[in-house]
């Protein structure tokens, strides 16, 4: 499984535009960095995005692992990495970090995966572009299994 940072977060689809948040080299679709230490002027924000891009457990489009296949045009990341990304953005605290957080977490376009009890449905829905489950109902019985989850909106 290749961890080359130049191949991480390649364009998510053939004709999908390469978009980066101004002042960053890692926040967006793909990256424009020469190497791992190459950060844009918004260094703290870019560090959050770089670390998220280099999550050690993710699924590129079309890739399968943990009995999950990523059939979206975007990289799907382990939920623990998304939790760390959200925490980093909140700690960075700038308006730019908030905008990146909203773009990533609140659009309803991205999902994550983790080992969890079986889901029984969604208790709460929200999202900007599409409706995403914000709160899941979990079974109190059954073995843990790998599952895909929508992400909670960024506030």
Automatic annotation (TrEMBL):
Localization (cell): Secreted
Residues covered by the Phospholipase A2-like central domain: 7-134
One GO biological process term: phospholipid metabolic process
Pfam family, one: Phospholip_A2_2
UniProt cofactor(s): Ca(2+)
Top EC class of this enzyme: hydrolase
Keyword Metal-binding: yes
Keywords: Calcium, Disulfide bond, Hydrolase, Lipid degradation, Lipid metabolism, Metal-binding, Secreted
SUPFAM superfamilies, per the entry: Phospholipase A2, PLA2 (SSF48619)
Gene3D superfamilies given in the database record: Phospholipase A2 domain
PANTHER family: RH14732P
Name this polypeptide is given: Phospholipase A2
Source organism of the structure: Hirondellea gigas
């Amino acid at each position: 499984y290749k961890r080359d940072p130049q191949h991480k977060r390649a364009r998510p689809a053939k004709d999908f535009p390469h978009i980066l948040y101004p002042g960053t080299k890692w926040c967006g679709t793909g990256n424009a960095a020469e190497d791992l230490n190459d950060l844009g002027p918004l260094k703290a924000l870019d560090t959050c995005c770089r670390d998220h891009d280099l999550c050690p457990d993710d699924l590129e489009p079309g890739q399968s692992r943990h009995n999950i296949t990523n059939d979206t045009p975007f990289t799907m990341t382990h939920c623990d990495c998304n939790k760390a990304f959200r925490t980093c953005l909140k700690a960075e605290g700038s308006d730019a970090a908030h905008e990146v957080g909203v773009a990533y977490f609140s659009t309803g376009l991205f999902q994550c995966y983790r080992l969890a009890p079986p889901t029984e449905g969604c208790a709460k829905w929200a999202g900007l572009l599409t409706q995403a489950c914000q709160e899941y109902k979990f079974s109190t019985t059954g073995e843990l299994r790998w599952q895909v989850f929508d992400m909670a909106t960024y506030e």
